[in-house]
Amino acid sequence: MATDGADSALTGPVLGIESSCDETAAAVLAPDGTILAETVLSQVADHAPYGGVVPEIAARAHLAHLPALVADTLARAGLGYDGLGAVAASAGPGLIGGLIVGSQFAKGVALARGIPYVAVNHLEAHALTARLPGLAGNGSLEFPYLLLLVSGGHCQCVAVLGVGRHQRLGGTVDDAAGEAFDKVAKLLGLGWPGGPALERLAAGGDASAFAFPRPMLGRAGCDFSFSGLKTSVAQEVARHGAGALPMGLAANIAASFQRAVAEVLADRAGNAMDLFAERHGGSALVVAGGVAANAAVRAALEAAAGARGFRLIAPPLRLCTDNAVMVAWTAIERLRLGWADPLDTAPRPRWPLDSADMRPASA
Ligand code: KG4
Ligand code: ZN
Question: So what CATH class is 145-314?
Fold first, then answer.
C-alpha cells in the first residue's frame, strides 16, 4: 500500500498520532528523531467502570480530545501546522473507530498543508521504537533484532529485519499476556487494568505457594498460551468460596501466577532467540508492551537473554506502552526510504506485521 514518493523527502518535523486503542496521543519529532513534544491522554478512567476497553467509548473519546491534544503538543514543540514536514497516524491494527479518528485527522493535515502522510502499522511502531536515537545505548540499534511484544492486545515474537521487513516467529494462540494479567487481577478483585495492581499484590506473596500450569513450557516453537493458566487460577479462587479472599492467600496466588507467566515468557522467548540466531545471526532482544513493566518478567527475560549471549533492550516504559513518539519515528524511518502513503489509504483493524504490503511494491 505504501508508494514511492519523490515528494516524500522529509523537510521538517513530523507529527505522529496514536488512537488505535485507549490512549489518545500526539508527538512531534525533528527529522533526526529528537522528541520536540509528546502527549499521552489515557482513557483508563472512562473504561474502568466496564472492566475493559469499550470500543464506542474509545472512539468518541479520541474524537473529543484529539484536536486540542494535537494543538497543545504542537504549541509545546514551538510549531504551528505550517511548520510540519510530514504527518503520520497509526492506521492499524486496532479498534476501527479510533483508527478512523486518528488517520482522518492526519490526512486532513496532510491535505491542508500539502505534506506527506504515512499510514503507520502500530506493531511496526512498537518494533522500531528501540531504534530511536539514544535508546539502545551508544549508537543506534542495527537490524536485525528480535522483538517480544507483550501488551494487553498483543503477544508475539517478531524478527525485525528492516523497515517494512518483519517475520513473525510465534504468538499467542489464545490470550495476550497482559490480558491474562487483567483477567487474573479481576478474579482477585483488583481494578482494571490489572497488571500493575497484581504486581504490587504479588510483592507480598510466596511465588512457590501454588504450582499453576506453565502452558507450552518446554515445547518446541515460540507460540504462547495463557487461557489454561487463567482457568487454573479461577479454579483455585473458586475453591475458597464466594467473597473476598484473605489478603495473604490472594498475594500468594498473584505471586504464583506472575512467576508462571514470567517462566512461560522466558521459555518461549528463549526458543525465539535460538531460532532467530540460527536464521538471522542477531543477538539483541527488544521487549515492548505494558507487561514489559513487570519486574519479574523483566528478570526472567534478562536471564534467558544472558544465557544466550543476547542483549536485552527495554525502552523506557512511556515508550514501551502505546504512545505517539513511536508513530512519528516509524514515519521518519519510512520517509527516509522515500515511502509515503496515498490519502485514500484505508485504516485496517487487522494488519499483520508480516503482510506483503508493509513495503511499496518497488522496494
Ligand atoms: O502496551 P499497553 O499499555 O497497552 C496495550 O495493551 O496496547 O499494555 C497494557 C497491558 C495491560 O494488560 C496491563 O495489565 C499490562 O499491560 N501491564 C502489566 C503491568 N503494567 C501493565 N502487566 C504486568 N505487570 C505490570 N507491571
Ligand atoms: Zn500497542
Answer: alpha beta
